[in-house]
Write a structure and sequence with these properties.
The structure is a single chain. The chain is an alpha/beta fold and about 450 residues long. It folds into three domains: about 1-85, 3-Layer(aba) Sandwich (Rossmann fold), CATH 3.40.50; about 95-300, Mur-like, catalytic domain (UDP-N-acetylmuramoyl-L-alanine:D-glutamate ligase), CATH 3.40.1190.10; about 310-455, Protein-Tyrosine Phosphatase, Chain A. Helices cover about 35% and strands about 25% of the residues. It has 15 helices and 22 strands. The strands form five sheets. The protein has a seven-stranded mixed beta sheet with strand order 7-6-8-5-11-12-13, sandwiched between helices. The termini are far apart.
Length: about 450
């Protein structure tokens, strides 16, 4: 198969291109920008576009497929050439469906928890020696790619994204996968990032349920009222329905134990939301033929996906976690999870806000009182990026302080100042949670943790 990627530099697009090349397909691609880690991976695979940019001559009538990335606009010159030639154009999810049409497709959807639930299922199936292909949105320990496609695996695990398929296709990505087994973890309208109404956002999940194949299975979180309402509204669909609820658990000396029958299984993850995720992952695995004892034996050593409430380091009775926090509700939930796990310890929480969004009052206002359960709160934002917007830094800082409304709070705008703060912070009796939706401004998390954990001088 001869395939050309328009916008090959995206994290998932680059992984798919490399996967297809390894399978022996002829792969080319273009992009106007390729950043790390995609750049190095594409270069090592001999697929890095050279030169960078859009070149219609790369699109020829002998192509079997053009795969269009979300980054490419509708007026992209290569896309226009493909349309002119009549070459078959796939959005990313359309292509994934085509390649997995003969497999059992398991699609995990929901506003939060998708990556973690897929990761849990992957971890269990791998430990049990089951063959499967997968598509996941975040790097997972033990797997060297975000995507794996083969001809032999009978199962395809997919992290189902509710965002648009491409610049020319306003259908949600997860509408294309037609799952045999679908799961919805939760539905929360993230209204300061979404460009559609709450009603339309919920409709996306209704349509997703409609795409489950006849006699397929919908697994859903019975603890989420929005999910339950959507399931009720689609009761005419001729599919199986299997609800799950958060299991019983106890916490002892910083370790969570999940109750399984008469047993208590120790876990390496924390947080009520992760216990709910385990219940969802177990239900999927049950439908895939995994026995209960095998599942819980395998899940007991599962560690969080990279940057998802992930343990970083510990010393002197203090621990450091990092998390991917892109909404106020996620920030609150993660703070609550760490506080519940270590109830006798105080908590320092640091949130790095996106500097391009923090200048928007509507964006910041959503964080009202969102760090109140943390004993100390630090908001970090890169001042250089704020200055690029020609907005007063003092005004932004004052606005952030007013909205977060925390009695023990600092707003820091330089990495060196943040390092200095940690070096002089008495970490005795404190844990630290570092959260960001960015890349920690290139911070090395281990170095960062060391500065917090060093003995107070």
């Amino acid at each position: 198969m001869k395939v050309h990627f328009i916008a090959i530099g995206g994290s998932v697009m680059s992984n798919l291109a490399i996967n297809l090349a390894k399978l022996g397909h002829q792969v080319t691609g273009s992009d106007d920008q390729v950043v790390e880690p995609s750049k190095t991976k594409l270069q090592e695979a001999g697929l890095l576009p050279d030169p960078i940019g859009w070149y219609p001559d790369k699109v020829t009538d002998d192509l079997d497929a053009v795969i269009l990335g979300k980054h490419a606009e509708a007026d992209n010159p290569e896309l226009l050439k493909a349309q002119e030639l009549g070459v078959k154009i796939y959005s990313f999810p359309e292509f994934i469906y085509e390649q997995s049409i003969d497999k059992i497709r398991v699609v995990i959807a929901g506003t939060y928890g998708k990556t973690t639930i897929v990761s849990m299922i992957m971890h269990v199936l791998k430990k049990l020696g089951r063959e499967f292909d997968y598509l996941i949105g975040s790097k997972l320990e033990g797997f060297d790619s975000l995507i794996k496609l083969t001809s032999r695996a009978p199962i395809m695990l997919i992290e189902g994204d509710e965002f648009y398929a491409s610049s020319i296709d306003r259908h949600a990505k997860f509408h294309y996968y037609h799952p045999n087994i679908a799961l919805i973890s939760n539905i929360q309208w993230d209204n300061f990032k979404m460009v559609i109404s709450e009603k339309e956002y919920h409709k996306q999940f209704e349509r997703f349920i409609d795409t489950v194949v006849p006699k397929g299975t919908l697994i859903y979180n019975k603890d989420d009222q929005n999910v339950v309402a959507i399931v009720e509204q689609t009761k005419d669909c001729k599919i199986n329905r299997h609800g799950y609820k958060m299991p019983q658990y106890t916490i002892n000396k910083g370790v969570t134990y999940i109750h399984v029958g008469d047993e208590e299984v120790p876990l390496r993850i924390i947080g009520k939301h992760n216990l709910s995720n385990i219940a969802g992952a177990y239900t999927v695995c049950e439908w895939l033929g995994v026995k209960r004892n095998d599942f819980y034996e395998a899940i007991s050593d599962f560690k969080s996906s990279i940057r998802y409430l992930e343990f970083v380091a510990s010393a002197n009775g203090s621990v450091v976690y990092q998390d991917f926090a892109h909404t106020p509700s996620k920030l609150k939930a993660s703070i609550r999870a760490v506080k519940e796990q270590f109830p006798t310890s105080s908590l320092l929480t640091i949130i790095e806000l996106n500097p391009y969004e923090v200048v928007e009052e509507e964006f910041v206002s959503r964080y009202q009182d969102s760090m109140n359960e943390s004993d100390w709160a630090v908001v970090f934002m890169n001042k250089n990026s704020i200055k690029e917007r020609n907005i007063s830094l003092d005004h932004v800082i004052a606005q952030v302080k007013q909205i977060f409304n925390h009695s023990n709070m600092m707003v820091l705008t330089e990495i060196d100042t943040l390092y200095h703060f940690l070096e002089n912070f008495d970490s005795t009796g404190f844990n630290m949670l570092f959260m960001s939706s960015n890349h920690y401004s290139e911070l090395n998390m281990l170095t960062f943790a060391d500065k917090f954990l060093q003995e107070y001088i």
